Amino acid sequence: MKTLDLLQTKLANSWSKDLEGFCEIFPLSDYISWIEMDFDTKKEITISLNDTDGLYLHFLYNLKDTLTLSSSGGAANKLENFQSAIIHDQKGRQTFLHLKGESTYQFCIVKLAKHNVNGDLNPFFVQFEEEFKKMSEVSYYLHTGLPNLELGEYVKKLMDMAKTQMSDKLMAAGYINILLSLKMKQFLKYIEDPSRLSALTVAELERIKQISDLISKAPEDNYLIEDICHTWGLSASKLQTGFKEMHGRTVCSFINHMRLLKAEELLKTTSMNVSEIVYALGWSSRSYFCKIFKEKYQCTPKGYQQQLLAC
Questions:
Q1: Rounded to the nearest 5°, which phi and psi values hold at 175?
Q2: What is the pTM of this model?
Q3: pLDDT at res. 214
């Protein structure tokens, strides 16, 4: 078994016989790096997430095969598909990522440093440490939590966008702030109720992900709960539980959310009027659409269109 240092900017040639794929590191600021890894392993691999010379907070989101996380001398933690982890050690202990041989992996990592190369303190990092200290005296935190597709939506946005220009980096840093805040909320819920577990199996969660992707691609279609349940082999209870766990929304709320995003896009990019957009996206009531649009965007669809025309 070999150990790969994550601080390398790319997979070294010496690893080519054990890995096939890529590792890309995008420095977004003096303190924040975004890392994308996508590869197949030929042998067992261990990745070191940080060195002992600096203090870091890591956020990790897993997109494929199960990962195993451990600290120096600590217990191992499994990270399933769609699960995320937040990892921090106040004493600079190492965290390791263990990968099986003959497997396919895809995951993303946020690396938040306590100090920059000049030794300047990151005030954002200090706020995280203070929150951790309020919750526990333990110096090492490795929290996974339930699978969550809401986090995955922001991860996908980060993966799809360019991250080279200053404007790109500022937007990417904004998405990372959202990711970390959502993960902290999940951590706080765990502190309140550590016994809470997912009611769904990994296979059922995978079906929830597929249903979510289907709705995201075609939110205008007519979706009936009983039809979804019959097609995908899920009970209504498990379907709703899965959406609440992974999106923080009911199925109907998720459909409306995706339709609203599509409606905003149509207002921006087409000459369609409000009534045309309402019926094109599967709503039967213009007044209902205007109500939920205003709740989300703090203005009416017509007002939104007028603002766009004025720009």
A1: -65, -40
A2: 0.73
A3: 94
In the block, which residue shows the tokens 């902290």? 184
* CATH superfamily for domain 202-310: Homeodomain-like (1.10.10.60)
* CATH annotation of 2-192: 2.60.120.10
Residue 294: predicted pLDDT = 93
pLDDT, tens digit, 9 for 90 and up, residues 124-179: 888 887 777 766 655 567 778 777 878 888 898 899 998 989 999 999 999 999 99
Exposed, middle or buried, 22 (CB in 10 Å: 0-12/13-18/19+)? exposed
Domain ranges (residues) in the chain:
2-192, 202-310
Q: Which amino acid is at 268?
A: K
Length reported for the chain = 311
- Interior/surface letters 174-193, b for 16+ CB within 10 angstroms, e for the rest: ebbeebbebbbebbeebeee
Q: How far does CA 100 lie from the centroid of its chain? A: 23
According to the per-residue pLDDT averaged within each range, which of 57-61, 141-145, 228-232 is highest? 228-232
